[in-house]
Amino acid sequence: MPAPLLELQNLQKYFPVSTGMMLRRQIGWVKAVDGVDFAIWPGETLGLIGESGCGKTTTSKLILLQEIPTAGTIRFGGEDISGLHGRELMRYRREVQVVFQDPYSSLSPRMRVGDIVAEPLEIHTDLSREALHERVAEVLELVGLEPEAARLFPHEFSGGQRQRIAIARALATHTRLIVLDEPVSALDVSIRAQIMNQLEHLQQTLGVSYLFIGHDLATVAHISHRIAVMYLGQIVELADSLELCAKPLHPYAQALFAAALPSHPDDRHEKLTISGEVPSALDPPSGCRFHPRCPHAMPQCSSETPIRKEVAPRHMVACHLY
Amino acid sequence: MATLLRVSDLQTHYFSFGGARVVKAVDRVSFALNEGETIGLVGESGCGKTTTCLSVVGLLPPAARIVGGSIEFAGEELTTKRPREMRRIRGRRIAMILQDPMASLNPLFSIYWQVAEPAYHHQGLRGRRLWQRVQDLLRAVRIPSPAVRMREYPHQMSGGMRQRVVGAIAMAGGPKLIIADEPTTNLDVTIQAQYLEVLKDIQQESGVALIFVTHNLGIVAKMCDKMAVMYAGKIVEQGAVRDLFRSPKHPYTQALLGSMPKLGSKEPLYAIPGQPPNLAQLPSGCAFHPRCAHAMPQCVSQAPDDRRIGPNWTARCWLLDQQAQEKYASAIA
Amino acid sequence: MADVTEQMGAGAAAVAREEFAGTGRRWSSLARDLPVLPLAILVPFVLIAVFADWIAPYDPTEPIPGAKIFEPPFWMQGGSTHALLGTDFQARDLLSRLIFGARVSLIVGMMGTLVAGSIGTALGILAGYLGGWVDQLIMRLTDAWLALPALVFAIFLATMLGPSMWNIIIILGAVYWTRYARVIRGEVLSLREREFVKLAEIAGGSRTRVILRHILPNVLNSTMVLASLTIGVVIIAEASLSFLGVGVPPPEPAWGSMLADGRSMLMVGDWWLTVFPGLGILFVVLATQLLGDWLRVRLDPQLRNV
């Protein structure tokens, strides 16, 4: 079994919350990420789903080194990335890129597309101008755009095309892992499938791994090999995509699937088992964080935090029911 | 069931650059809605679904005008109404729910006043009876402890709550028709599900008709009885939701359904080639032809008419003519 | 509603795209409705200033041979056509002095604005992007600078450094950079959070690279608007300094010093010595303000309507 490309162990990120204008007193922590473990293998897609406040954005920021973890480790290619600086840091940045949700603000408006795509190459390599041009043309074609697009500006492209440019840029330096943060949510429905197919094709051709963050279950389930479900800073279930869709085990995951929109009017109408809203991460419930809203809550749930167990092959759940 | 709303041949155009440029946002759109029914207006950005709704309630921006067709609501013709008359209809008989609840709510007024306002103006309720009505409305949208929450302000509530308040405001005037324009786009999955349940409950209790404007076929599958698929300002197919989902007749409808990822299936998605059209520069003939897998020469030169497929089912496609011809031919043979 | 705006946006974008390709769409679409009034004043002004040597009838520092002092303009009694707008207290041609004075105003205005803009923009970018103590330091510096009355400070510096055109340029630049610093810093604060900047940072771009390739080009619009608005201020400042005698030194003509020279003669009715330079200052500054306003509306995507 090959080693995982990216490995998160017991990752925590707490943000301090303080009050007062002059003498700032700290009154608590927002536990945005509280004990997250998962791994991504080369060439696979891990989907991360959860609702607002679950910590998936913070997790992606930690992976992209935009935030520093409070505790826990992130390993890339076996190496701990927390102490990286200098050459190793650049190597990490070269191999891990991101594609954001909004195609209209993620491309520098005053730069030509060719320069935008070439930027990571300029930062990390010292290829000649011709070599840069060649590589830019190569990746543009990979994402289904004409090489001539390099001379144009972002505003001359549609949303879907801009996302392709963003993807091309993310691939330029032979990236090994791309963090995709809701990459198709802002696109028209008919364009989403184009981009999804493109992403899958790129993965098959290049062997790049994806961390696919999204809120639409069907979209995430389609493109991911495995899915991790997050709730209030923790991963409550992690399983193969099809297995999770067929048999979600954690009550929150079950609620998510019950709440998901049907794809056909004749689809079985599952009863909604959840009510209320996600509590604030400032003062999360004790024990299992889902217990106040859980239809199967037991006394144990409010006092003890469940640990993750492998309940079926490659299917982990953190719940006292199992 | 009585027909509540009948839109016939509606044409709404946008005029810009001093009249030099005309964009046909709504190009001969016809559909009907009975009391208590829910219709989904489906399409992508720029297809004209929002403009259609704005035309119905008379809230078009200054650059747009209804240039033809009729909108009949509860027996009255809306296109010829004066602004003053439309003001009486809006809120009281037709209400709208918009996408962003924060934009729909006034940050300076309490929930009570905002929900009470339509009831105050349109139903003349005052004092104790008004207070009771607001409480009933908030309870209908499943807001817990309504008497307490009604004194709060929008910024003190979460997104899901706010959207429900918007729903309560919409219901406050006692309308017969609510137009909901992408009301759940910004909501989380479970919040969205709860909200849709609330809308269904309201509908069952009060018999209000709903127009659901969305690009999300899942919402249509869950909430609507009928659906109308729009493309480039025209309705390309409309009929019962079950019929369209089971065997869609128009290539665009088929393509949309094929491009939706389905939970629990890894079937490859059908990616419609090309981009949604630019209304200022529409392709000739059938606007979908550049992206259509079944395009024929005829599609480039002539825009197809509406063809009847079933009692309440129509679609605009030359393929149907061909299929009808083939059926006819094989029937005589 | 997204649908509506996108329809309009799609229509308008299509128009723009089909008519103007590629680089700086906004700049090329500027050609469509230019502000006539400011340009009608400024274009001649610049041309006159540039071609002063060829246009001016006489050497502005030398008296016209054979002319009297304080000759009125040619259409008045006592005037003659050899000095169209009259002569000053040294029998120098007023018209030529006006023309060369335009050059001084233009140079000082433009160069002073350039110095102020460069200092202010650079400090604003550093403060906004680097944040922390750099930001604090620069902002406190800006506050302190702003506390000084601009003109008084300029006068002080001028008397310290001695009068000469280049000193004035540097002084005015040093006095007026603060407005740039504040505005640009604000813009950079919001630009910094934009996704394309984050992307560059995540890709490993150094701070220098991010500033030069992503931040700077996107604040240039504001810089230009500010510049066009500042030119007027600088021209007036220069005129004030010259008026007070600490600006461009004689015999070099400057509109401000011409105002000062002619002031005493106003009492006896020789109005042309002050009115013409005064009008010059008035129109040029008015034109730059109008141009700056037009640019601001034009380049700010939120204020433009389709």
What are the main properties of this structure?
heterotrimer, B: 333 residues, alpha/beta, Rossmann fold, 25% strand, globular, C: mainly alpha, MetI-like fold, 13 helices, elongated, disordered N terminus, disordered C terminus
Structural description of this entry:
The complex is a heterotrimer of chains A (322), B (333) and C (306). Helix content of chain A is 32%, strand content 24%. Chain A is α/β, with parallel strands linked by helices. In chain A, the strands form two sheets. In chain A, strands 6-7-8-3-9-10-12-11 form an eight-stranded mixed beta sheet, with helices on both faces. A four-stranded antiparallel beta sheet of chain A has the order 2-1-4-5. The mean pLDDT of chain B is 89. Chain B has a single domain (3-93, 175-332), classed as Rossmann fold. Chain B is of the alpha/beta class and 333 residues long. The longest helix of chain B is centred in the middle third of the chain and has 18 residues, at 189-206. In chain B, the strands form two sheets. An eight-stranded mixed beta sheet of chain B has the order 6-7-8-3-9-10-12-11, sandwiched between helices. Chain B has a four-stranded antiparallel beta sheet with strand order 2-1-4-5. The two termini of chain B are 42 Å apart. Chain B has helices at residues 49-57, 83-89, 101-104, 111-123, 127-140, 146-149, 159-172, 189-206, 217-223, 241-246, 251-259, 297-301, 318-332, and strands at residues 3-16, 21-34, 38-42, 64-73, 76-77, 94-97, 177-181, 209-214, 226-231, 234-240, 306-310, 313-316. Chain C has helices at 2-19, 25-30, 36-50, 52-55, 94-130, 132-147, 150-161, 165-176, 178-191, 195-202, 207-243, 255-266, 272-299. Chain C is 72% helix and 0% strand. At the A-C interface, helix 2 and helix 3 of A face helix 10 and helix 11 of C.
